[in-house]
């Protein structure tokens, strides 16, 4: 006789609805584009990208002028270091914004908690450092512009580009600082470890439970096992008693 299997049903992985690891949705999900566009972090990221583009383009296009010679001079007091620094900060900030913008969009699809933590820590470090560099850029460009005389810029050449680079360097300080704060909040939010199985911690796919035939479609756990031993002590062979008393024949 076949006995019912005593193997317990696999445990169903915990649900991850709502807020998941580091403020993102459940692991393995994809972000809705409309919801993603309305997030404050996305708005700050777009503004930061625009500000970095303005700083970079202003100096590259009109940040150099030639005065009575073919040699180009930086509009910031003829200090080429000021122009080079502004171009560097603007260009790298522009590329970094593009990278983190893509990372924000793909963040919910990262199933590993460790990888999410690394991404958030990278954003905190870079955003905080670039906030400092833009503060230096604002102070450096503003100082060099204040020392620039009208004779160095005939017909006010490049003045608008210089002012734009200084102004948007200041705006970039605010936006990069805002991104740093948002990243710190995301890190402090951390993760609810009960939302993830061991496979999620290791970056693997969660184990799927066995399908159930119940109408609800959910899985059920077997709490009782039915195991009957084939032989017991009480199952003794039947005994037969012979009646030795015979009736006498009637004469």
Describe the fold and architecture:
This is Synaptogyrin. It is found in: Membrane. Belongs to the synaptogyrin family. One of its GO terms (cellular component) is synaptic vesicle membrane. Residues 36-188 form the MARVEL domain. The protein is an all-alpha fold and 251 residues long. It has a domain at 37-199: Butyryl-CoA Dehydrogenase, subunit A, domain 3, CATH 1.20.140. It is built from 6 helices and 2 strands. Helix 2 packs antiparallel against helix 5 (159-189). The longest helix is centred in the middle third of the chain and has 34 residues, at 113-146. The radius of gyration is 37 Å and the shape is elongated. Residues 10-19, 196-203 and 216-226 have low confidence and may be disordered.
String of helices and strands: HHEEHHHH
Relative helix content: 40-55%
Given helix and strand content, the structural type is mainly alpha
CATH-defined architecture of the domain at 37-199: Up-down Bundle
Provide the β-strand percentage band: under 5%
- Output the CATH topology of the domain at 37-199: Butyryl-CoA Dehydrogenase, subunit A, domain 3
Mean of residue pLDDT? Answer: 75
CATH class of the domain at 37-199: Mainly Alpha
Distance between the termini: 58 Å
Number of strands: 2
Keywords: Membrane, Transmembrane, Transmembrane helix
Membrane topology: Multi-pass membrane protein
Biased composition (Polar residues): 226-238
Protein name: Synaptogyrin
């Amino acid at each position: 006789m076949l006995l019912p299997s005593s193997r317990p049903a696999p445990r169903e992985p915990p649900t991850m609805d709502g807020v998941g690891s580091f403020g993102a949705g459940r692991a393995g999900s994809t972000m809705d584009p409309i919801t993603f566009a309305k997030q404050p972090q996305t708005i700050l990221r777009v503004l930061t990208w625009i500000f970095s583009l303005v700083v970079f383009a202003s100096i590259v296009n009109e940040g150099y002028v030639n005065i009575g010679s073919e040699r180009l001079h930086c509009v910031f007091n003829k200090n080429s270091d000021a122009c080079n620094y502004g171009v560097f900060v603007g260009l790298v900030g522009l590329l970094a914004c593009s990278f983190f913008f893509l990372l924000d969009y793909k963040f919910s699809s990262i199933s590993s908690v460790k990888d999410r933590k690394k991404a958030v820590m990278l954003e905190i470090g870079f955003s905080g450092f670039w906030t400092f560099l833009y503060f230096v850029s604002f102070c450096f460009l503003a100082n060099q512009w204040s020392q620039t005389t009208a004779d160095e810029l005939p017909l006010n050449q490049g003045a608008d580009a210089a002012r734009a680079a200084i102004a948007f360097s200041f705006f970039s300080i605010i936006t990069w600082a805002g991104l740093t704060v948002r990243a710190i909040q995301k890190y402090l939010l951390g993760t609810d470890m009960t939302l993830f199985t061991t496979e999620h911690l290791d970056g693997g796919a969660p184990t799927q439970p066995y399908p159930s035939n119940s109408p609800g479609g959910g899985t059920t756990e077997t709490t009782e096992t039915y195991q009957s031993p084939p032989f017991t002590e009480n199952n003794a062979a039947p005994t037969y008693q012979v009646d030795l008393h015979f009736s006498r024949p009637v004469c």
